[in-house]
Amino acid sequence: MSDINRAQILDILASINDPVSHKNLVAADMISGLAIKDSMVQFSIEIGDPSRADQMEPIRKQAEEAVRNLPGVISVTAILTAERAAQKKPAQPQPQKKETGTGAAEIRHIIAVASGKGGVGKSTTAVNLALALKSLGLAVGMMDADVFGPSQPRMMGISGRPASDDGKTLEPMENFGVKSMSMGFLVAEDQPVVWRGPMVMGALQQMLNDVNWGPLDVLVVDMPPGTGDAQLSMSQNVPLAGAVIVSTPQDIALLDARKGLNMFKKVDVPVLGLIENMSYFLCPKCGEQSDIFGHGGARDEAERIGADFLGEIPLHMDIRTTSDGGNPIVVSDPESAHAKAYMAIAEKVWGKLSSGEGQPAGPKISFS
Ligand SMILES: Nc1ncnc2c1ncn2[C@@H]1O[C@H](COP(=O)(O)OP(=O)(O)O)[C@@H](O)[C@H]1O
Ligand SMILES: [Mg+2]
């Protein structure tokens, strides 16, 4: 495999023009912080004025795409920054180092709920898992890392905007005793002051570090779908204790779940196990079970690759209506079989976390 070098990356970025100066991004001196680690590339595009963010977002995407197409590149994270503009204005008070927010300092375990692709029920599973962990008596938070398609406000039944006492840090929102933070709480108004930049990767970091999470036993992170840059970057920058992979039987068959597993393996995040969602169809009328997609694939797949199988959740209308209606089944019908399935998974996950299995320093699951 060819090694990627800076010159190749700058060459390709020099083929993209800044719509304002009409110079290319390199000639306009807009590229900074270029870092290459293994096959992963990161850089910033300096936009000067933060109000240009919307205009520059397509350019950022184009730049990411162009670099991603270079041979040997696995992932690319480009962020828009307006740092130099801030530095050029010495008359303005420099932002203080944040000392007020508790950030992630008091979070014991951060776990990612991920999937190979979208629509497999990752958010539904993440929410019910978080609520099930809460019902074990744990202090739980949820972070919606799906910044482009946030679903936590709807599923957690939370609306409104987070408060900020100091203009620098945000108070998490809360429902059912679970703290929650999502871009969905912030996107309604165009430029919330507390968010330093409009950028996605920055947003993930800020959701973790600039939110007063307080002491938590577990923070459940609902990851964006897929195995792309956001996930990789998240797992590199955030001290993840482990990942839970959600997949449907079809997804297993199509090997999408395997991609998710491999991604975490690549960045040394232990995989706590697999959950099979929409595993089988439970007829709401007669209670009969139908294995529409050929149920049980996740258990076999987990076994084959040496990951744990955490449990299966049926495809059932009640699961959809409750989570889509902001009253997930674990809280709306805790005695139901579905809620109990989530509870059993939560117990397994907590068992692993509390025994240190998910700790970065602990034993890692490796896949051959
Ligand atoms: N086990 C299930 N039974 C029935 N519907 C489900 C189940 N899991 C998820 N859904 C529904 O499928 C849709 C997609 O789920 P969602 O959690 O948003 O997926 P993702 O986050 O992976 O994109 C939602 O409408 C959700 O209510
Ligand atoms: Mg989702």
From TrEMBL:
Binding-site list for ATP: G116, K117, G118, G119, V120, G121, K122, S123
Keyword Protein biosynthesis found: no
Pfam families linked to this entry: FeS_assembly_P (PF01883), ParA (PF10609)
Requisite cofactors: [4Fe-4S] cluster
Listed PROSITE patterns: MRP (PS01215)
GO function terms (MF aspect): 4 iron, 4 sulfur cluster binding; ATP binding; ATP hydrolysis activity; ATP-dependent FeS chaperone activity; metal ion binding
GO BP, sorted A to Z: iron-sulfur cluster assembly; mitochondrial respiratory chain complex I assembly
Stretch forming the signal peptide: none
PANTHER family documented for this protein: IRON-SULFUR PROTEIN NUBPL
HAMAP family registered for this protein in UniProt: Mrp_NBP35 (MF_02040)
Protein name: Iron-sulfur cluster carrier protein
Phylogenetic classification of the source organism: Bacteria, Pseudomonadati, Pseudomonadota, Alphaproteobacteria, Rhodospirillales
